[in-house]
Amino acid sequence: MTETTKYLLPENRIPRAWYNLAADLPEPLAPVLHPGTGQPVGPDDMLPIFPPSLVAQEMSVEREVEIPDPVRDVYALWRPTPLHRARRLERALETPARIYYKYEGVSPAGSHKPNTAVAQAFYNKYDGTKRLTTETGAGQWGSSLAFAGALFGLPVDVYMVRVSFEQKPYRRALMETYGARCVASPSEETESGRAILARHPDSTGSLGIAISEAVEMAVARDDTQYALGSVLNHVLLHQTVVGLEAMEQMAMADDAPDVVIACAGGGSNFAGLAFPYLGERLRGGRDVRIVAVEPSACPTLTRGSFAYDFGDTAHLTPLMKMYTLGSSFVPSGIHAGGLRYHGMSPLVSHIKALGLIEAEALDQLECFAAGVRFARAEGIVPAPEATHAIRAVIREAEACKAEGTSRAILFNLSGHGHFDMQAYTDYFAGKLRDEAYDEAALKEAIADLPGVAA
Amino acid sequence: MTETTKYLLPENRIPRAWYNLAADLPEPLAPVLHPGTGQPVGPDDMLPIFPPSLVAQEMSVEREVEIPDPVRDVYALWRPTPLHRARRLERALETPARIYYKYEGVSPAGSHKPNTAVAQAFYNKYDGTKRLTTETGAGQWGSSLAFAGALFGLPVDVYMVRVSFEQKPYRRALMETYGARCVASPSEETESGRAILARHPDSTGSLGIAISEAVEMAVARDDTQYALGSVLNHVLLHQTVVGLEAMEQMAMADDAPDVVIACAGGGSNFAGLAFPYLGERLRGGRDVRIVAVEPSACPTLTRGSFAYDFGDTAHLTPLMKMYTLGSSFVPSGIHAGGLRYHGMSPLVSHIKALGLIEAEALDQLECFAAGVRFARAEGIVPAPEATHAIRAVIREAEACKAEGTSRAILFNLSGHGHFDMQAYTDYFAGKLRDEAYDEAALKEAIADLPGVAA
């Protein structure tokens, strides 16, 4: 061994509590509004689709939320995840920067998503839920919830966007291996699905339709609840195990980040790494720059409006104040499917609006190039979402080189790309483009915002 | 935390030496013979395709072979791998057995193969090789060597069986992401390839043809060497990091295995876990049963002849004494591609012939059923090869239950199944069968053995 490459914690160092950023915010979050009344929603409005424990977490402003032992027991299958020092990438870049990454791809589903899936499955089981419904696009979230459902003996129905159901059978096979029931959406099982099929028998589906189907089934059945993989406060809360572990591991490395970088779609991956560091800073601790990276094709934080909007395209959800491209905005078909969301979680939007974090939008091609460079240096092929963080990290490291300064850069490698090799195939075949967003469509979608004042 | 689930070692506990079983054998291995002269091959016969360091390891009878620091540095990207206690599987089986598994799926390529790929790439680089060639079927070995080549700056040419090249593009994309050149075999690049194409322009290729192409290129070029992913002594040697780590981790668990189980195709995965335990036993240490598991469709150890045979179908390799179904035997197309080899490594064959280990052959369907059961209990979807070990483990655990005794069972989970979801899809769709071997074809292939006496 000539140098230390990674920092491992034993399983008894899995955090005992999640960190809740709401406790340290300089200003409280804008309330979530009922779309009918325009009034703030309360716990009662959420109970038809979420169990009481998660509703309480959604509203909580306690700084620490204890992680139940059964959740830590399942986390222990892969957590604490390793923190790596990217020494080979540093050498390839000839940079004086110290680059670290927290690697979430070691989870059974290959990404960070199980951090919240396990917690949500546990609380639903604990509160008496008999069945969970959810939606999935390419299948990363659906397979994570299927995994968690299997471990807690909770059946999971996944409404999967039909085009993915047919064209991406491998994530579907993963869900079925875990015992989940996978339904192509739109389906004949729900009113929303039947209504779409009546008008468009050949509909290939959309995430918006799939959400509508999953929520409808949860509302319709007393024993069934709904689970969401990002955006909401309790989901971001569960992801903070990532940053809490990273803090301890950076201390093992006798270092601390000057910059924390993560990609952001709905916001849960970003929050997981960044919130514990931001909280420390807000409480008067160490200063650290925090950067959210999004695709140029879906530039929510950098080009969206900070306004009330629906979380789904079918307008079934409450209104949330967030950065949004408008719920009718359809981003182009870039391969980082997890970053193609029209909105951004209210918590991440709030801290961006307060100027507490930075954001940048990057093009698809430079991100894939960065991903390939990373794979050849560090050995891990990153998921397309994570290549956005990597591109930003390389820029930062190149800036260090140009300035002749050494900064510590920490980023979140949210998942491996083993299920995304078609994207790399297309990249090498020269089939990918830098899909800029459609300026006219964005204007139209922004004009369509419900226009509710805070 | 209510119970310990896994045992982790820090990276400075990566073994400092591989374990060489040749040092502890009660009888020496039969010599490898030159196919032309019938005489034992010496180092000079191997140097056209392997670098001097690896030729020396192939012949070595030293008990410990030091692992160079640059190899340990790369191992540290994912090693030491975790040892898990399969408590959820134990509960699901209601067995008093203690089940442990060593998980090699956390490597960048998702299997145990990089353990030797990294070592082979290092020694080739060290000995001045400028380019490596190899063959690959589904791509597990090719992607591992591509990964290792990338980290040591060594270009890799992978001759990939054409049918896999066309039908399984994802492993190919993984190799190309690591920078390897992937060539559909048979190709126009080699005499062997051109000869096949002249006779069969539509040839879909075979592992035998791909080996011939890779070896031909290594022989033809002074600066190019060949790398093999299993069978040979030095390959098995490199895999012993698995068992050496497991021994230390079992001690952390304050336990020791009564039975060690691993699947066996060419033998390197089996050897990696089993040889350190067998060596300890042979030196008068703790008694432990050791079981190799193979598919019923390719029952090399259980139904093959122990005889001299070629390693490839084209008869370019030296003659090795091994359990073999005959080099002309073509196993049916089961999904555990890594277990479809007509022979078995000479070292594993030797210890089986000496009665030092057990072997059993299992059907494909019961193995997939065991794999699904494992995934739903432990969360990890196993590669089809590894499901063979899991099926054997479940049987052993059920025997413990029937007997009312608790034994410690240790097995090697050689890789995850994220690249094998088509196999699970076919399994759930009822498309898989128990492909028994063809008794008549086996007899014919055995009759075709070269008939060289030891």
* Largest interface, Cβ cutoff 8 Å: A-B, 52 and 52 residues
Strand order of the largest sheet of chain A: 1-4-5-15-10-11-14
Determine and state the CATH class of the largest domain in chain A.
Answer: Alpha Beta
Shape of chain A: globular
Radius of gyration of chain A, in angstroms, nearest whole number: 21 Å
Helical segment tally of chain A? 19
Determine the oligomeric state from the structure: homodimer
Our count of domains of chain A comes out at: 2
CATH third-level topology of the largest domain in chain A: Rossmann fold
Low-confidence parts of chain A, pLDDT < 50 over ≥5 residues? none
Topology:
Two copies of one chain form a homodimer.
Chain A: E1 6-7, E2 17-19, H1 43-46, H2 52-59, E3 64-66, H3 69-75, E4 83-85, H4 87-93, E5 98-103, H5 114-126, E6 131-136, H6 140-152, E7 156-161, H7 162-167, H8 169-177, E8 181-185, H9 191-199, H10 207-220, E9 224-226, H11 233-239, H12 241-252, E10 259-263, H13 268-282, E11 289-295, H14 300-303, E12 305-310, E13 319-324, H15 346-353, E14 358-362, H16 364-378, H17 384-403, E15 408-413, H18 421-428, H19 439-447
Parallel strand pairs in A: 5-15, 6-7, 6-9, 7-8, 10-11, 10-15, 11-14
Antiparallel strand pairs in A: 1-4, 2-3, 4-5, 12-13
Helix pairs in contact in A: 2-11, 3-5, 4-16, 5-6, 5-11, 6-8, 9-10, 11-13, 12-13, 16-17
